[in-house]
Specification:
Helices cover about 20% and strands about 40% of the residues. By secondary structure, it is an alpha+beta fold.
Length: about 280
């Protein structure tokens, strides 16, 4: 290979890498620790007997503890979740309750009061329980049953506490509701265990979501998913700690790559391989 040919191919490869990064495809990025100090709390309206949340971030920004048994609450990131593989740990540090812990994906600031909200809720209940919430927006809906286990639901508009509890879209509330999409492959009917740490991993893109718990794939969904923040979710559960979260390059680009770009990337890779083969032959 001549020097000028090498320079031209190197320049082409560099340009493609820059283009792919611009399209939301990182090039061999290393995992990045998440600083929780930049995250924001957002609560659903209070209902009778359930106070507001209390999220406390430690000084390092590595850990946050939600300490109140209260209303549905979200602690959301300062970055968009598309195109990322996000992982971290969750632990309920008490034996006094058995309610919901979990996460949101595709959440936008203000979604707890927005008629246009459209995000994914991954929540985990320790035990099955029927409950009827009173007061606030819950006055328009009847009670519901929260099933033990891990589930994923689509949240639209502004659901009431009863709808969030039972993953329902009730007729009494025309402003929003939930549609349960799937239950975990091995944890769909199994609750979390007190004082036990679990590692969650989320690989999220415009049309794909994969969720692992302790390296076991629980959800592998395809569809049309909104971009937005990742967040932590609690409902009527105290002493929940989230820690050691980090992000890495995901499997699903934030912007789907056109076919021509995929072919171009493959072609440049083939050229590089042929060049190395020719060099080895000439050296031999």
């Amino acid at each position: 290979m001549t020097y000028s040919s090498f320079i031209n191919r190197t320049a082409s490869t560099t340009a493609l890498s820059a283009f792919l990064i611009g399209m939301g495809v990182a090039a061999c990025a290393a995992p990045v620790a998440v600083d929780l100090n930049g995250w924001t709390v957002e609560n659903y309206p209070e209902v009778n007997g359930f106070a507001g949340a209390n999220w406390t971030v430690d000084g390092s920004g590595d850990t946050v503890l939600q300490s109140v048994n209260g209303q549905p609450t979200i602690f959301y990131s300062d970055f968009q979740a598309y195109g990322l593989n996000t992982s971290g740990k969750i632990k309920v540090e008490t034996g006094n309750d058995d309610d919901f812990v979990g996460f949101v994906l595709g959440f936008d600031p203000g979604d707890t009061s927005s008629s246009s909200a459209n995000y994914l809720l991954i929540d985990w209940k320790q035990n099955t329980q029927t409950y009827n919430f009173n007061g606030g927006t819950a006055a328009s809906t009847v009670g519901s049953t929260a099933e033990e286990g891990l589930a994923i639901s689509r949240v639209t508009g502004t659901p009431t506490a009863d709808e969030l509890w039972g993953h329902e879209n009730q007729g009494g509330n025309a402003s929003g509701g939930l549609e349960e999409l799937a239950r975990g492959a091995t944890l769909g009917s199994t609750g979390w265990v007190d004082n036990t740490e679990y590692e969650f991993t989320f690989d999220f893109g415009p049309n794909n979501l994969q969720v692992w718990v302790d390296s076991v794939l629980q959800f592998d969904l395809t569809g049309n998913f909104e971009n937005g923040r990742i967040g932590f979710y609690n409902f009527s559960q105290n002493q929940v700690r989230y820690s050691a979260f980090e992000t890495d390059q995901g499997s699903f680009p934030a912007v789907p790559l056109p076919g021509a770009v995929v072919l171009l990337a493959g072609g440049l890779g083939l050229m590089g391989g042929l060049g190395r083969l020719a060099k080895r032959k000439s050296a031999g």
